[in-house]
Amino acid sequence: MKLGQATIKDIAKELNVSSSTVSRALKDYPGISDETKRKVKELADKLNYRPNAVALSLRKSKSFTIGVIIPEVVHFFFSTVISGIEEIAFANGYNVILCQTNERLDREKSSIETMLSNQIDGLLVSYSKETTDFEHFSKLMKLEFPIVFFDRLPDLPNSINVTVNDYDGAYQAVTHLISQGYKKIVHLAGPKNLTISKKRREGYIQALEDAGISVNENLIVECPSGTEKESFDVTIKLFEDVDNRPDAIFAHHDIVGAGAMMALKSIGLKIPEDVGVVGYSNWQFSSMIDPPLSTVSQPGFNIGEKATTMLLDMINNKNDYKKEPVHVVLDTELLVRKSSVRL
Amino acid sequence: MKLGQATIKDIAKELNVSSSTVSRALKDYPGISDETKRKVKELADKLNYRPNAVALSLRKSKSFTIGVIIPEVVHFFFSTVISGIEEIAFANGYNVILCQTNERLDREKSSIETMLSNQIDGLLVSYSKETTDFEHFSKLMKLEFPIVFFDRLPDLPNSINVTVNDYDGAYQAVTHLISQGYKKIVHLAGPKNLTISKKRREGYIQALEDAGISVNENLIVECPSGTEKESFDVTIKLFEDVDNRPDAIFAHHDIVGAGAMMALKSIGLKIPEDVGVVGYSNWQFSSMIDPPLSTVSQPGFNIGEKATTMLLDMINNKNDYKKEPVHVVLDTELLVRKSSVRL
């Protein structure tokens, strides 16, 4: 057996397991033990087994299908991105398949393998909150497999990205709160490993500094899971000390903002009179709650359109994005509603 | 050339188009003219070209991937179903790919073709509002390709289905409104071709009849698109005649209910004092709006779990569902909140 010609069957035979187990172990599928995965991968390395991704990059025929990896389909922002993606894809004769990672790295990896085995022509990715190592993307990019990242900016030197100006969105939101006379502004922040969270935090800090308000680190509280319940609990705690209460909240997304509003109401505080609240992402419900929640609107549909246009150009070699990194940044818009207006 | 051995290339040559055009025409992909599609399909029929689906049904190896076809990912109900699907799929070593149809039949058809070319092992389907002919499903079922339908019940003799008891959910909601002293109850209904809409309408009618209230067809108004704006406009119209106003609304889902609430507020009517409102599906926002919206909760997660368990059994031949139709019906639960309580 020559190197480079090892098959899944060879590996299976050597390890005395089924071909299906080998195939699934190589793809990091769930349901296979870590021990088996390790053994299979070691032998595959030793035998120089050529993995799918390489085979794929050598493949000539197109499937006219693009894959989309998103953290959560229920997130309103992502659903608007998907609409933008589909608009461009369908208009160009491409179909779209989606996988959600539920913010988990293992699911992200196995979703990518699933999509690659399914012969997609390119990939649009918003990676999971757990992803800090981007090796599973960079190895594909080295093989010139078309990938465009959206919303969440990876720590990769040559990635093609479409994001929104999260820094500016946060800066505008906090500057607006200050203009309404709020002074002690809490930031209910997102997880630190996401660039979007960092940028929103930076925008919050810069807006305070530009207004001459000193930054109090105790007022920046992480809400990593982003559920209503989490921000409810965090808010109750922040407002415990009756003599020393904050007077505004800038939440890293609307669900977090809504949870905070429920907490404020539960302790008898009035919005916006006592406490002003601004969210982020303009979820569908945000204009329907009481009072309607001010928020930063991200151009989800445009992100999807732009990212897909770039991906199709890469797939069809219309543009040589490989030469230099391309980073498209789209503007956000502050939507002022009742929750933050008291003047 | 023998019959049954025609290839895509043969068809392409005969029609003087590219193989890619033939392939996409056969798959009903967008971006190919109807005229070309017709020509390609006619010749494929004539030459007895064996389509993908047949080839697939003859295929032995598994992909450990299941496909899910849903109308809209943003719909909170469907996102809970997806969570249930993924729970069972991942636990059994399967991955999940999703396609959304945006309630369009053409996208449904091309999504199915995409997924089949991608060698899924089985399909979970909630079909689009436009789908009235189920031929594209029945031809797969004849080939014994595993399909389980959820939420929306197809008009097919041997389908395997998991639905909720929509009739009973509606019956409970309307009975609750009557028990709160509401008498002139509007039904903002869903599109007529969906079984779920029919069942909810039947539940509404039966609840009125059982309470001795005669059914007024003018109070049943269709909101086919299901947007807030649509139900806002419909509600304004229904309440135009000040001397003859309804006193309650049973909406076929929560977005419709929320639109109606905004309309009622805009004309100065109080909820629940003047008008009671009950929605359907328990969207994420429903407990956050003012007043919180009473609604019928569907067990989305359980539907996803049950449908996936049945599909995996079919894929692995553990159960012979082919022998007789199987229809699992799960119970709904009425969640009473402030929007419908006035006693």
Automatic annotation (TrEMBL), chains A, B:
* InterPro entries to which the protein is assigned, alphabetical: HTH_LacI (IPR000843), Lambda_DNA-bd_dom_sf (IPR010982), Peripla_BP/Lac1_sug-bd_dom (IPR001761), Peripla_BP_I (IPR028082)
What SMART domains does the database record attribute to this sequence?
HTH_LACI (SM00354)
Pfam families noted in UniProt: LacI, Peripla_BP_1
Cite the CDD domains for this sequence.
HTH_LacI, PBP1_LacI_sugar_binding-like
Domain HTH lacI-type stretches: 6-60
Q: Which GO terms describe its molecular function?
A: DNA-binding transcription factor activity; transcription cis-regulatory region binding
Tree of life domain: Bacteria
What is this protein identified as? LacI-family transcriptional regulator
What UniProt keywords are attached to this protein's entry? Answer: DNA-binding, Transcription, Transcription regulation
Recorded source organism is Indibacter alkaliphilus (strain CCUG 57479 / KCTC 22604 / LW1)
